[in-house]
Write a structure and sequence with these properties.
Layout (H helix, E strand, L loop, with lengths): L15 E3 L5 E3 L3 H20 L4 H21 L19 H15 L9 E2 L4 H24 L6 H21 L7 E2 L7
Antiparallel strand pairs: 1-2, 3-4
Helix pairs in contact: 1-2, 1-4, 3-5, 4-5
Length: 190
Amino acid sequence: MVVLNKIYTKTGDAGETALGNGARVAKHALRVNAYGTVDETNATVGLARLHATDEMDAQLAMIQNDLFDLGADLCRPDMEKDAEAEYPVLRMADTQVTRLETQIDAMTKQVEPLRSFILPGGSPLAAHLHLCRTISRRAERLSVELATMEAVNPAAVKYLNRLSDWFFQASRIANENGKRDVLWVPGANR
């Protein structure tokens, strides 16, 4: 259980923060950027939920919880030392990726195949989901870059890859199953 008796600690005043294993790193470190962008994604999901139907809200609530799991995973380096930790280390699982895939497949059956790229917009929910998509893509890029330098749980990277696809299909559902999608018209304003 997390207990926060005090919100500010002053330990980050010199530009450093603690990782999940206690190591101190610069606040601009790639690992911190990766899980910070996951947190940013989570905040935008909260905005999207303000416009969601009950079913989509329930799915978005699960995603928000997953994103905290993902942040916990990314903030803890040294995966090979997980067994030595004083408490169980939280890592993303392939079952979380599979759940997203199942939901994406169900949404895909509800929409017509695309014949054009889609511009972000349509309904307020769709616009927010597109923002979630782009921020989650940035989190994925940062996590993939981090994985070229340090160990990163492969399930975490897969989850982020599927998540942006989930947001895309959910935006189409939010746009009346694609009927209100805003289509790109190449060269329309030349």
